[in-house]
Amino acid sequence: MANTPDLPPLREVIARHGLSASKALGQNFLLDEQLLARIAAIPGDLSGARALEVGPGPGGLTRALLRAGACVTAIEMDTRCLPALAELGEAFPGQLRVIEGDAMTLDHAALMQGEPFHVVSNLPYNVGTALFTNWLESAVWPPLWRSLTLMFQREVADRIVAQPGTTAYGRLAVLAQWRSTAKLALKVHRSAFTPPPKVMSAIVHLTPAAASEGVAPATLSRLTAAAFGQRRKMLRQSLKSVPGALEALQTVGVEETRRAETLSVAEFVNLARALTKVKRD
To answer: What values do phi and psi take at 117, rounded to 5?
Structure first.
């Protein structure tokens, strides 16, 4: 376990540095340190482990990860927050590295120097889903990340863990569950944030599972985007824009009169495998 130096309250840090949450950057600061400690504990023992955090802001979750013993690489594009993060780095020598930049444009595996890592983040709302799908659609599997512990709006979290036949089931559920195990780990009330967002939030925890062989991530992504883009239509209509998709339905024995929300993750994977094979042939 890392040393646990005395740190000023997060509200004091925010006031001293004149920080305020930026709506343009999708920021909402989480200040409850007991809650932050619970989030940092979700991946398991982080003592000596590498952790990647996107959008640390004033460093609330960062300090919880550091106290848990993690070696944290934090990506922050809001330069206003850098002095507060620098103070944290001084309090935990050798444990925190802050990268100023846009997480959407950075190579995370390269940043982590090819070493396994855990992703633990209160993701900025405006880029959270895009980052999430990027981690899931990695061409290399198993990935370098050992777990994803991510804060989302509750509606998005529900979509990630949704089951077929439910209104929340869609593209995110398929992408999350086809080669990882996803669970809703913690519900977070809007009042825990400063300023409080208009919606509730939740933490989703994912761990990699075995890859489905013969499936190209890009093919599955395109297939689910088309299928759920017109989710109330039959597959023969929603998938006609995807070359070979209607033939793939016949190959794997899926009726073209079904709708996307009725297909299991395994059926989508089988469809993507059939399409991937056609492209290779």
So the answer is: -155, 160
β partners of residue 99: 75
Kindly state the tokens that stand for 112: 């982590």
d(C-alpha 175, C-alpha 192), whole Å: 29
- pLDDT tens digits, 178-221: 999 999 999 999 888 877 788 899 999 999 998 888 999 999 99
Return all residues near 93 (Cβ < 8 A) that are at least 6 apart.
none
Residue 25 pLDDT level (bands cut at 50, 70, 90): low
End-to-end CA distance of the chain: 53
Please tell me the distance from the alpha carbon of residue 16 to that of residue 86, in angstroms, as a whole number. Answer: 14
- Assess whether the previous peptide bond of 142 is cis (omega < 30° from 0): yes
* Chain centre to alpha carbon of residue 192: 20
Q: What is the mean pLDDT of residues 242-265?
A: 96
What are the distances in angstroms from CA 239 to CA 11, 163, 227, 228, 231? 51, 21, 6, 9, 10
**CATH class assigned to 217-280:** mainly alpha
> Which CATH architecture fits 10-208?
3-Layer(aba) Sandwich (3.40)
User: Residue 56 corresponds to which tokens in the numbers above?
Assistant: 């640390």
